[in-house]
Every structure is written in C-alpha cells, then in structure tokens.
Amino acid sequence: xxxxxxxxxxxxxxxxxxxxxxxxxxxxxxxxxxxxxxxxxxxxxxxxxxxxxxxxxxxxxxxxxxxxxxxxxxxxxxxxxxxxxxxxxxxxxxxxxxxxxxxxxxxxxxxxxxxxxxxxxxxxxxxxxxxxxxxxxxxxxxxxxxxxxxxxxxxxxxxxxxxxxxxxxxxxxxxxxxxxxxxxxxxxxxxxxxxxxxxxxxxxxxxxxxxxxxxxxxxxxxxxxxxxxxxxxxxxxxxxxxxxxxxxxxxxxxxxxxxxxxxxxxxxxxxxxxxxxxxxxxxxxxxxxxx
Length: 291
Fold this sequence. Notes:
Elements: H1 2-11, H2 16-27, H3 31-45, H4 47-71, H5 101-114, H6 119-139, H7 144-169, H8 181-188, H9 196-219, H10 227-251, H11 253-256, H12 259-290
Helix pairs in contact: 2-6, 3-4, 3-10, 4-5, 4-7, 4-8, 4-9, 5-6, 5-7, 6-7, 8-9, 9-12, 10-12
C-alpha cells in the first residue's frame, strides 16, 4: 500500500494546481509559521496557553528527532522508492525520514489548538493536520509509514504530555524542567554523529524552557490592549525574530553557516519569544495603565 500511495502522488506532480497546493499546505508546518502561531497565542491571546503549547511542541520535536537519529531510516529516494529529482521541496526534508517532523509539528500546534476550538473548529483543525501529513507523502518527502507513525506518537504525546504539564505546573514552575527529558533523549543520540537539527533545537528548546520558567516566576505577563494594539505588538516582536535570525548574514555568509552560531541564534530567538518580549510588553502595558 505504501509504495503505491507515494508513487500515485508522484504521478500527480504533473497537475500544477495540486503540486502548488501541496507545497502551500506543507509550509504551514514549517518553522516560520509555527513561530508565528505560537507567538500570536503567547503574546496576543493567552500567555499560559501559549506556554503550554510551546512546551508540548518542544517535547514533541525532540521525541521525533531522537527517534530519527536512533532508527536512521532513509528518505524515500534513498530507499529507491522514487527518484530524488521527482521530489518537490526536497530542501524541507532534512535528516532521516522516520517519523515525519512536519506531521509532528502539525499535531503539536494545530492539534493543540483544536483543544480550545468548538466542534466544527476541532474537525477543521484535525483535518488540516491530516492534509499536512498527506502533503509530505505527495511531495515525496516521506512514506505513509513515516506520517502514520508521527501521528500516533504525537497524538499520544499531546495527551500524556498535556496531562503531565497540567499536573506538574499546577504545583511549581520549576517542574517545567521535567520537559527537558525529551531534549536529553534527543541530545544523547548525538553520540552517533553530529545532527544540525538536534543541535539547533537543543539550543532553542533549552532556552525556551528557561524563558518560560523565568516568565512564570518573575514576569507573569498577560496580553492586554485592543486588537489593533496587539497586532502592532506582534508585528514588532516578529520583526525582531527575523532580525535575530538573519543578522549574521549581514556580516558574512560563512559566519551564518557556523553551527555554534546557529545554536546561539536559536537560543536568543527562544529567549526573545518566551521571556524578553513578554517582559517588554508587560512594562508597556503597565505604563499605559498609569497614564
């Protein structure tokens, strides 16, 4: 079944509309969109729900990255199922194939948001998760086994991890660091060889957990202001994320490619998202209340 499904989708690449649609759908599970959705929830809607989503999403990413590095299952073109030149958006298929990272991200973001949606919203969000998984097969980046495994693992983590988060965080903010266990699991797999994705995400995940702890302990930010005000705050905050992401390129392309610098960059972005910008927004909100 798996071979026929991916080869059937590959044959549909000749239909431009379907190919472009699959590329657009898969984009919604990539870093840029995930950060936008998370920042909107954290900065503009509900900081506690944003922290919960960020923590579970980070854990989900690390379970996936660790399994990829342990199992080392090649991409479909390396298995000889399809040819590399048949793959669309192959640049999004980094590292090993099993399980699908995009599908994991979709579950931990859109599946998470479904928790707070009404019935119709839940159906639409979970349907979108399914479409993202199908888009990865359509593009040729994953087999159906990769996608199904990611769905099962991520849904299980979203449920169990969510229960653990609610129980632990109700007792003490320091319990956030229990969610570094998936990070440690992924980091241990680096003994088998350097993996850029794991190094970058370890920097991001570790800094994000620290930022969430410090925010909950000392800042206690709550979104405030009208919709236009919150929209403006989001745009300013996200512009800073873009600046943090690409500032090394202003110095040198070679510097931008340094792995240790990418790690530093990801850590700075995580701290900005989770701690620094919420602190700035709280001070702005307090100043507005006193005027």
